[in-house]
Specification:
By secondary structure, the protein is an all-alpha fold. The longest helix is centred in the first third of the chain and has 36 residues. It is globular.
Length: 359
């Protein structure tokens, strides 16, 4: 009987029922937090992400990703054990931030350009904050310290590349041509040929012919796909906004912060670090803001912000899991990568502070 009660589906159902009861008990707070999450989605996320979603669809349909993949394959494959098309995803992910990298990785899988294991490596390395958020919102907006931007960016993106290099050993014991990864056409000898601009242009032309959609249809499909994705992202933002508010109303958030503060103090740390960690565990923006307000030295607050940005928050985790759910990519490698990314980023802040930190 106890084993049935502890079954994941039973626990999930009980949690859902508890949340429903809390929503009925705190209707005003739920409405306010829903509107706050909707405002964040409409005013920040929609204008920031929607153009990139549409552009990525167009680039895939036009063969530009295939062009970039042919050029970057000699670099990406030996370093990250990812096909060259992953270089395009890496650049777009770093430029536009989470969850664009996961969306592009799922599109590459749809077009059979990467296997499941390669997709897991790619999502792990491309899940980063965008520079505008890191510099404008966090460094300037929250910390009011533009001087921390270089060390924060170096720690965040540098540790991401380190994670990408470490992930090259992920899946070494697994076949990358399994039943869930229908990739045999990419493993033959002709697919291994290296070439310059000419072969890259040929790959782009062949991809465009294979797609076959007129440009007007391609634009329409790209806009429709982008809108569907934005609705999913917006729904998850609202759900986590409500969840955080309910945890705050029931004082569970305060209890978690107090408990973690005791753990930090037991290991010689500061209890002030607990609030940013708990907030950042769920949502990256709240965690970054809490990091800037902690009663700690600037060095330690910057390290906390680096951890928050690299962990990315469970809200972003849920967005990425939804984007790659149809591909068969597993969540556990992504979770491990985010955990290691957070630790490496925080450690790199301490290592780089004396070199490029504020004087």
């Amino acid at each position: 009987m106890s084993r049935k009660l502890l079954h994941p589906s039973t626990v999930t159902a009980l949690c859902a029922a508890l949340l429903m009861a809390l929503m009925a008990f705190y209707p005003a707070s739920v409405l306010a937090s829903s509107l706050r999450g909707l405002s964040i989605w409409w005013e920040v996320l929609f204008p920031a992400l929607f153009p990139f979603f549409v552009l990525s669809e167009l680039m895939l349909g036009l063969g530009i990703v295939h062009f970039a993949g042919k050029l970057l394959d000699p670099v990406m494959r030996p370093v990250f054990r990812i096909p060259g098309s992953g270089g395009f995803v890496l650049a777009m992910g770093y430029l536009s931030g989470y969850p664009v990298g996961a969306r592009l990785a799922s599109q590459l899988w749809d077009q059979k350009l990467i296997s499941r294991v390669e997709g897991e490596r790619l999502v792990a390395v491309t899940t980063t904050s965008d520079p505008i958020f890191l510099i404008g919102a966090v460094s300037v907006g929250f910390f009011h310290q533009a001087a921390i931007a270089p060390v924060l960016a170096a720690a965040h993106y540098g540790s991401s590349l380190a994670i990408g290099f470490l992930m090259r050993w992920h899946g070494r014991g697994e076949s990358e041509e399994g039943a869930s990864d229908p990739m045999p056409h990419r493993r033959n000898s002709s697919a291994r040929k290296r070439g310059g601009i000419g072969s890259a242009l040929k790959a782009m032309h062949e991809a465009r012919l294979l797609d076959g959609r007129p440009f007007s249809v391609l634009v329409r499909d790209a806009v429709q796909s982008g809108l569907r994705l934005m609705i999913v992202v917006g729904g998850l933002v609202v759900v986590f906004s409500v969840l955080m508010e309910l945890l705050r109303e029931t004082s569970l958030l305060g209890l978690l912060e107090a408990g973690l503060g005791l753990v930090f103090e037991a290991f010689g740390g500061s209890a002030s670090s607990a609030a940013p960690v708990i907030s950042g565990l769920f949502e990256v923006t709240l965690g970054a803001k809490a990091s800037s307000e902690a009663s700690l030295a600037l060095l330690h607050r910057t390290a906390l912000a680096a951890w928050v940005l690299s962990w990315a928050g469970l809200s972003v985790h849920a967005q990425i899991a939804s984007l790659v759910s149809h591909t068969g990519m597993r969540y556990r490698p992504f979770l491990l990568a985010r955990f290691l990314h957070g630790l490496l980023a925080a450690g790199m802040v301490y290592a780089l502070w004396g070199w490029i930190g504020p004087g």
